[in-house]
Write a structure and sequence with these properties.
Two copies of one chain form a homodimer.
Chain A: H1 2-22, H2 35-38, H3 42-53, E1 70-71, E2 86-87, H4 91-107, H5 110-126, H6 128-139, H7 143-150, H8 152-169, E3 175-182, E4 185-198, E5 201-205, H9 216-224, E6 229-232, H10 239-254, E7 262-264, H11 274-279, E8 284-290, H12 293-302, E9 307-311, E10 316-320, H13 326-338, E11 348-354, E12 358-360, E13 363-365, H14 367-381, H15 385-392, H16 398-408, E14 411-415, E15 419-420, E16 430-431, E17 434-438, E18 452-458, H17 461-475, E19 479-483, H18 487-500, E20 503-506, H19 539-543, E21 546-554
Parallel strand pairs in A: 5-6, 5-8, 6-7, 8-9, 10-11, 10-19, 11-18, 17-18, 19-20
Antiparallel strand pairs in A: 1-2, 3-4, 4-21, 12-13, 14-17, 15-16
Helix pairs in contact in A: 1-5, 1-8, 3-6, 5-8, 5-10, 6-7, 6-10, 7-8, 8-9, 13-14, 17-18
Chain lengths: ~550, ~550
């Protein structure tokens, strides 16, 4: 049965490995929530499945080992509490049970690991609508985004991680005959075998904005390398990962494994210690973390028994030098700032514009003209509330609102952040983006996560590049965007981006936003600046998750094969 | 010119990558110091080159940046001081100079990195005799071993690291066209490029027993991924790495790079702080360390700005259950204990023998009979001083002698360690191996690095396996050797070895010793127990050394190609 899963998905896996090496566009999971791809009634069934989960306990069948307590107090950013209670983990029962479950899982080997992992992703894809509603009502993303980013795009990242692990494991032979010539004497002959040994239970710590997209790479890289996984969601976004864990447990059980290979460690916001307690447990050999720099740095510093892979905070920046498409540039930037109210780790925050203006096909536009074009484009996106909420979504939590207030004191308000009423969810927490003019000569060197951006006047583009490089190097950054028609500056930007270890997007004026990162093509994070110590997904991301242990024996002396 | 190096060695590189995936026997560097392979007069020329280095300053041409001080006080374990003085590094001048040198090196790209690295290894191979004398008179290895382990075998490990890096870098395309369909609309088209960005200056910290073999993997993995490297040798074994650095600088200069891409940080034994000072410098992004657990753990704990890869201490063990070749087993074990006076990180220390004896073709032999067979075999190896010294070599330093004294208090002496007079070097520090009977019920859980082993009586083989697993898990181990003709025990041993993350050798009775680890086939260390946090050489060992930084741009908006 486990091998059936592998054979069922083998073609997909091979395409995925090939896509990873080509890095062109590829995805097996359609991002369109159309019945043409997901079937008639899939949308309605998914909504019904989501609604059936509300206001009741979330049950695993069979139950997850340990825990008679119930936790969970998710409240939709669109208003109502979800009313779902999850089994709380009793670590002293759950982790030993996971170790028992892991014992046969680790023996199963790469084909079974890949097959089971791929089947889980396939079933998650079939539940994309249900997961989309769960993502919408925990993160605040608008529905379409919740479907795409929480469903097929997250599934792409999962498949990418499985493919990357498979690619690496395929480089290691299972056995070899080693025959060393000895001149006139008989050669030395040894039979050698190599075994992939997973590194331990993996802890995956989710965030409240992209619970699936950011957690799937670690979760599935762990499974594809034979590790058991405990998933600790953010208390504000448990449901999408609880459904994920439930699906994983079903597939594991069907494949003949104890479902405690994958477990959920839900907790209330008041129980702030669970992640750290878990992270220091000796059973935990791997930690995948998405969240704040404070928590990520703590894990890197303290969880010394584990390999810790983190995605943390950073300051993303846009440098405007010149453009051959002013309208496209302005529209693209405005969309980048507004999408999901800036609650993406890839959203730009600082926008550098030269004091003496920007060269465009319409001539040299002044600093004020370019700033105002951006401000007006953002304002224009939010004039119609009904359309705006489909772009903005809702604000995930109150801390974002407080950050808007804080940012308002950091310069001059160019575009005020205002509350919008959501036509469908009157209780939704919706705010339009705040655009600030940064105080003169003050570099913005703190992250303001949320719908907050700063337009920063600079003496010239070279100054902007140097400033952006320094901020990315010191504070971290996942994205850097720049607009220039100058070939020399383009080279300088590429040098600066390489030195700061930040992905560079040039002259985005069309349908791709700097915020967006496509699996199988775009590396997400580089591991080369403080925003992340790893990337999604490369060899370093997967090769830490297993070890190779060899046995060798002279062929002549072997008494049994 | 740099590309010439790549093309010159391309076939070797491709064979090496293939060997790495097959893991059968392969080596392009002959381990025999015969004129048939190294040419007539090579031995004499190498000796002359070594002797010409004695009693004078070691000069780099061009000079290494920084430093007017001279250091170095190596004394041969065979007697005389070497009298060589090396330029001491002035870090505040040397590291900035390295960064300047690194700037063009990092731009050169994988082909140039590989080509230059391969040319360096090729030239090192041509200097194997000179390096052999340098290794002999710093480590104390006998000449033949110094030639093999310090020359071709170390070069194999260097080539393996280059091949492993190349294999990984080949998985990353330089550029791609990303074309995402948009239904009835025109597709989104982006041009993407990826650049390999080295992680920073690599610090390679050498040891005094295998200065080249243990340092080359880190050194050459760094070069092959575009990093500059500062090599800090053990103060007792500077010369082999100084020659290596000199050769590297020559090749770099010929290829048009500043030679400070590779530098030497020599120091006197009294200057104990240099390694730690260097390790915490912000310029250092990678550290490869071979040495004590205390120093390795300190680096892992403290050098947080760098990726730290360590090989540390451990306790290697032999489990004897049964054998179909008693004489072969006893002889193989005796050679393992005697080779280089046990001064290998892979030398067995604890030998477990069941109290009720061992099943052999000669019937059940008692614990005492098997112990005595081993003791007599070791004693026999050292009866003829002239032959013995070619196996034992010399004791590298006084601490090893003190450890022999310490170990003598830990049980009953079965075979006394005695001084031998070296027929060629009367001042040589030569000792025969000490074999102890461990105190009853006392597990030997400390490392006694040197010609020291403990025979440990155990109730049965299952007890021995459990004990060995626990010691390897807690204290670390690079090797585990076992003798059994029982298929069930063989499986139990493989499970225990996998759980303890230690390489297992079964039934070694012939020409392969457990101490020996062959490049392209045997992983050295696993990274899965405290003896090492990495392995030589796998994807994890090389993938930490670089990051990938991408640029993407819409194809339509590009004004310059």
């Amino acid at each position: 049965m486990p091998t059936d899963f592998f054979n069922r998905h083998r073609a997909t896996l091979e395409q995925a490995v090939s896509a990873l090496q080509q890095r062109g566009y590829w995805s097996p999971y359609n991002e369109s929530p159309s019945p043409r791809f997901y079937g008639e009634g899939a949308a309605e069934a998914g909504r019904a499945a989501y609604e059936a989960r509300l206001e009741r306990p979330f049950l695993f069948t069979p139950e997850q080992a340990g825990g008679d307590r119930w936790v969970g107090a998710e409240v939709s950013p669109y208003g109502p509490p979800l009313g779902i209670r999850y089994p709380a983990p009793d670590l002293d029962r759950l982790l030993p049970s996971m170790q028992r479950a892991a014992a046969s899982w680790r023996e199963a080997g790469p084909q079974v690991w890949a097959g089971v992992a791929l089947e889980i992703v396939q079933r998650l894809n079939a539940r994309s609508f249900e997961i989309a509603h769960a993502v919408q009502h925990t993160t605040g993303q608008a529905f379409t985004m919740a479907f795409q980013a929480g469903g097929p795009h997250a599934q792409d990242r999962a498949l990418e991680a499985i493919a990357c692990a498979w690619q690496q494991l395929q480089l290691i032979p299972a056995e070899a005959r080693w025959e060393k010539p000895q001149g006139k004497h008989a050669p030395l002959v040894m039979r050698k075998t190599w075994r992939i040994v997973p590194r331990g239970i993996g802890l995956v710590i989710g965030c409240c904005t992209f619970p699936t997209w950011n957690s799937y790479p670690g979760l599935f890289a762990n499974l594809a390398t034979g590790n058991a996984v405990i998933v600790k969601p953010h208390p504000g976004a448990i449901l999408p990962l609880a459904i994920t864990v439930q699906v994983a447990r079903e597939v594991l059980a069907e494949a003949g494994f104890a479902p405690d290979v994958v477990t959920l460690a839900a907790h209330d916001a008041s129980d702030t210690g669970l992640a750290r307690t878990l992270a220091l447990r000796h059973e935990i050999g791997l930690i995948d973390f998405t969240g704040s720099s404070a928590n990520g740095d703590w894990l890197e510093e303290r969880a010394r028994q584990a390999r810790v892979l983190t995605e943390k905070s950073g300051i993303n920046q846009i440098i405007i030098d010149s453009t051959d498409n002013l309208a496209g540039m302005v529209q693209n930037i405005a969309l980048s700032l507004a999408l999901y109210s800036g609650q993406m780790c890839t959203t730009p925050q600082n926008i550098y514009i030269p004091r003496d203006g920007v060269r465009t096909p319409q001539g040299q536009l002044s600093f004020v003209e370019v700033s105002q074009a951006i401000v007006q484009a953002v304002a224009h996106l939010t004039t119609d509330s009904a359309k705006a909420v489909e772009l903005l979504g809702a604000i995930q939590n109150e801390a974002v609102l407080q950050r808007i207030e804080l940012a308002r004191g950091k310069g001059q308000v160019l575009l005020e952040s205002t509350a919008l009423v959501h036509p469908q969810f009157p209780g939704a927490r919706v705010r339009t983006p705040l655009v600030m003019l940064a105080r003169r000569n003050e570099a913005i060197t703190e992250e303001y996560f949320g719908p907050i951006s700063f337009i920063v006047p600079v003496d010239d583009t070279a100054t902007a590049i140097a400033l952006a490089q320094r901020i990315a190097t010191d504070q971290g950054a996942l994205t850097l965007s720049a607009y220039t028609t100058d070939a020399t500056l383009r080279q300088g930007l590429q040098h600066a981006a390489a030195d700061a270890g930040v992905a560079l997007s040039l002259n985005l004026t069309g349908g791709v936003l700097v915020n967006q990162s496509a699996a199988f093509s775009d590396y997400h994070g580089t591991g080369a600046n403080p925003a992340a110590n790893c990337t999604l997904t490369d060899a370093d991301f997967v090769a830490a998750r297993y070890r190779v242990v060899q046995t060798r024996e002279p062929v002549a002396s072997t008494t049994t094969a």
